[in-house]
Design goal:
- By secondary structure, the chain is an alpha/beta fold.
- The protein has one domain (4-67, 102-437): Succinylarginine dihydrolase (L-arginine/glycine Amidinotransferase, Chain A), CATH 3.75.10.20.
- It contains 16 helices and 15 strands.
- The strands form five sheets. Strands 2-1-15 form a three-stranded mixed beta sheet, with helices on both faces.
- The protein is globular.
- Bound molecules: N~2~-(3-carboxypropanoyl)-L-arginine.
- N~2~-(3-carboxypropanoyl)-L-arginine is lined by residues 18-22, 25, 28, 102, 104, 107, 109-110, 135, 138, 177, 246-247, 249-250, 362-364, 368.
Length: 446
Amino acid sequence: MQTLEANFDGLVGLTHNYGGLSVGNLASKSNTGQVSRPREAALQGLAKMKYLHDAGLVQGLLPPHERPFLLLLRDAGFSGSDTMVIETAAKQAPELLRAASSSANMWVANAAIISPSADTSDGRLHASAANLTTMLHRSIEGPQTARALRAAFPKDQHFAIHDPLPAHEYFADEGAANHVRLCADHGAPGVEIFVHGRHAGFAPDLKFPARQTFEANQALARRHGLNSDRVVFTMQSQKAIEAGAFHNDVVCVGAKTCLFFHENAFADTEATLEDIRRAANDLFEPQFVQVSDEDVPLRDAVTSYLFNSMLLEWPGEERLVLVAPAECRETPSVEQFCKKLVKGNGPIGRVEFVDVRQSMRNGGGPACLRLRVVLTPEELAATNPDMLMSDKLHARLTDWITRHYREELSPEDLADPTLLTEGRTALDELCGILDLGSAFYPFQRN
Ligand code: SUG
């Protein structure tokens, strides 16, 4: 067996809802207050995982976080019984209850930045949980994410799992959504591209926040022991952020030697490509698939989420496969472009479409839902097997979701304290299914 790239998807949580919490994320804003369908959302995500598992790819999953997160509400001064905390917060600070109830942890592309062992100085896989400091509802994810990563990758001799960077805007970090790795083969040393939206202490004059700092990226590359000759730091274009690309993965995705990106993704495209070529010197020849604004206007790229596709090496196929959101077929410029993309002999040979519409309505496409983890055979063997997809796990999770998830959830429902008990009962059971022990969630440790 060879070193491979596994995808770990975030399992959609029981409180999946449209809270309108993310400034700069156009879908989140435009769907604010709509009634969500948590069961359907979770089953859509699970179907994507099963699809890739059935294709012969290694698929894992990361469990949803505990929501509503009572610790946030208690830290904010709400006290008394859990029911009282929820009911009072619903009356006095509904925005805080919405933040504490968000299921945004499902977008695990933001969970961490991962450097495969082929790139690091100590030969271990390094993962840094993201602090997600820019958005309140996401800033509560880091510690639980680190716990989940340690549960999935438990052996110290193979894995170095780091806690999030200090929670300050200097280190604002949104995980792998602003990180791309190119390589000749997954097991060979690669080039790691870190993308930032701003420098610390400097708030660009943008209508939307830039969520990743250059300083966070530098710290992560240092922590992971990367060879500085093989690292590229580059900046997102302000135009992309203002058009709704709150993460670089809304306008860019890369795999193996291929970087697929919109011409407006980077502040300085020429310099970025030159830096990548230089970093890849002697390793591989990068293949750049640059999409012009004429072919796909930035606006269409953002609404369709074309670049938030998974770009995958597919068993038995020579060229890469782009697993794109179904919305791409409904955006004429993008649909046309996809047909053109696979003609000829470029690096991308096929486009497949998946339905993750419930997630898309909050700005989370197929690539947002997954965290890529390159694993050597030894590392795969050391991974928690109960967190890897199988037909059996798929059947158990389908049953678990069907029994525990609500069909519909409106913003008003977040004030209902029974949602808390429903969630805890379900997560307790999930800990058994994924072999997470009985002290995995904060509520279990009280
Ligand atoms: O951080 N949406 C997420 C979407 C994350 C997408 N991830 C990547 N691009 N990798 C975000 O903006 C919306 C939640 C709400 O409004 O209820 C939200 O958090």
